[in-house]
Write a structure and sequence with these properties.
two-stranded antiparallel sheet; 9 helices; single chain; about 10% strand; globular; alpha/beta; binds flavin-adenine dinucleotide; 4-stranded parallel beta sheet; FAD/NAD(P)-binding domain; about 35% helix
Length: about 290
Amino acid sequence: MGYEVDLPNLETYAKTLLEAPREPSEETFGNAETIESDVSMQKQRKGRDKFIKDASKMANVIKEKLINSSGNPVFPYPFITLDAEKVAARKYDYIIVGGGTAGCPLAATLSQKHTVLVLERGGSPYGNSEIENGDNFGNPLNEPDKYSSIAQEVLTEDGLKLARARVLGGGTAINAGFYSRASLGFIQRMGWDEKLVNESFLWVEKVNAFKPDHLSRWSTALKDALLEVGVLPYNGYTMDHVEGTKISASTFDNHGKRHTAADLLKYANPHNIVVLLNATASRILFSSSSGA
Ligand SMILES: Cc1cc2nc3c(=O)[nH]c(=O)nc-3n(C[C@H](O)[C@H](O)[C@H](O)COP(=O)(O)OP(=O)(O)OC[C@H]3O[C@@H](n4cnc5c(N)ncnc54)[C@H](O)[C@@H]3O)c2cc1C
């Protein structure tokens, strides 16, 4: 099966970098005549920092877009494939339809003791800057189409326009990245094992949750607005589900890179799992015979 490497995107990225301000030379820093004021100096430093940050992002994008000699992308896990023939005529203990927010951790967990096939209708989030680059948050939501976009527009029964993901990692590849734990009350109501749930939170958070070292302007505005209208107390940073206003963890790291549920596949037993991309399940056949 073919795979289209997102070269146009890469080119736009490269162009942005070339147009970014260069690091000021030693001479510029040292020569008082060329520096009009502290403000212009700060601007140059900011430009340099942005340049370095963008260059490292660019390096990551290129690394992740490396293709092998057969023209296929190099996925971070060997068990992700676009080749349907690899999974055909094989039996699995479990077939999971949808490699999304729930599907990926479920598959990783089941694969510890069972054979698992994940069918994901979308492609890979890896190397896709529309997903991974936090600056592009929202773009996929503005470009939904019926058949191939990362986000698919859906209309709820009560007429609300929403989006659903169509990519490995599911909703975590398009959402706002707000990460919070469930409340104790909810866990108890569901009848879940509290100890196991807490262990599971840690399992996920090691890979997917980051404590922000600063708040974006959007988050700052939201926090201030909540406090202004009296959503109290102010709890500062916590991942716990608490009353009032808080700063929580994010699935975007402090370099602005998004981490999706697909990253949880790193916990999978690679010998027991296959993740097939571009694979839409259209029917499930149930059988009552014991051989099913
Ligand atoms: C814009 C937006 C912002 C959000 N922000 C946040 C937030 O900040 N914090 C938060 O906690 N939640 C947020 N959410 C909600 C959260 O992302 C979802 O509730 C969650 O991702 C749903 O997980 P899921 O496993 O049920 O489904 P999904 O993660 O959507 O997984 C379903 C998967 O199944 C695949 N699939 C569907 N049909 C088929 C088929 N027939 N064959 C094969 N594969 C199929 C899809 O491609 C997808 O990968 C947001 C949601 C949206 C849309």
